[in-house]
Amino acid sequence: MDKPKVVITREEIANKVAELATQLRKDYRGKNPLLIGILKGSFVFLSDLMRSMNIPVEVDFVRLSSYGAGTESSGKIKLVKDVETPIRGRHVLVVEDIIDRGLTVRFLLDYLSFREPASLKLCALFNKPSRRKVEVPIDYVGFTVPDAFVVGYGLDLNEKLRYLPDLCVLEEQK
Ligand code: IMP
Prior knowledge:
alpha/beta, Rossmann fold, six-stranded mixed beta sheet, 3 helices, 9 strands, globular, binds inosinic acid
């Protein structure tokens, strides 16, 4: 396998997560927001983010199939695991690891808005705007990353490398 090269360090990620959490704490204080993480990639970010927010929140997860094996997918999105918490009247914050073509998040936002939340916003740690296929409004964003496949901090390649604490790209072995 190619060698992971660090592009964003764990310290930089921690600082950014704290920054996002400070903003979210201000915006959601007293609103008992429901954070919805998109499995599997976002669980690392979500767990750091909610603890850093340090206000009462509830958490739920959805699982959407997008990427199959490898680094490209069919473009078809399917709901594999639904939210279990009633959405109507809730302040919902979707928490995503990375937005690439935008298809996954577009699907989920459309799906959730049907259920009439009080508000519906999106927080993404990494953004790859150069690859966008459909427009998505990102309310809270961490880093813009170049058009390369990245791994670590929850992001995988074929289920491998999620455990890396830094964000990495894969370099060819010499
Ligand atoms: P989109 O529908 O193209 O925006 O894809 C978003 C999903 O694809 C994310 O939830 C990730 O699971 C996955 N993904 C996109 N880019 C990367 C990457 O560079 N590394 C790992 N996973 C990625």
